[in-house]
Amino acid sequence: MTDDTQPTPEEFADLENLLQYFIEENQEFLSWIGTTVEHIGEGTMTLSVPYDEKLSNKRPTPSGDGRADLHGGIAATLIDTAGGLALRTAMDNPFDARIATINLNVNYLRPAVGDLVATANVIRVGGSVGVSEIMVESTTPDGETREVATGQGAFRIFRPE
């Protein structure tokens, strides 16, 4: 790889590590919330964020105990990020394009009280727009994994001319 060319996936033994490095070096918010690349496949991607009280909203409970819920914006961030990045896995030249969110739909199903894991699947990558569906799961204190949010994103793809 030279300074004047873009890297290609074939140049790296592990695309997950490349993307993790990119997040840590270039995406301060994603790095701050602890975003980790779990899996990358063709047309799919999985990202996670560990539970952290700094990302939570405490609600008063009658007994005063219980773990605080993660802020819904953290799930929305995962939906947006995983959905956009997953599109690159279905493109011939994933590093040649810029991608911007043009529409994001998030449906919250239940409070998240543990680590979050978002899996995005590409629905379609067109010439200028791509669409992904995303499911976010969370682990409950008793160890059960439950769906906490679903989403769909539409993303503008800016390809080089």
Automatic annotation (TrEMBL):
Keyword Signal on entry: no
Keyword entries, A-Z: Hydrolase
SUPFAM superfamilies per the UniProt record, alphabetical: Thioesterase/thiol ester dehydrase-isomerase
GO MF annotations, alphabetized: hydrolase activity
Coiled-coil region list: none
CDD domains found in the cross-reference section: PaaI_thioesterase
Pfam families recorded: 4HBT
Domain Thioesterase: 70-139
Gene3D superfamilies listed in its UniProt record: Hotdog Thioesterase
PANTHER family: 1,4-DIHYDROXY-2-NAPHTHOYL-COA THIOESTERASE 1 (PTHR43240), MEDIUM_LONG-CHAIN ACYL-COA THIOESTERASE YIGI (PTHR43240:SF20)
Protein name: Thioesterase superfamily protein
Organism encoding this protein: Natronorubrum sulfidifaciens JCM 14089
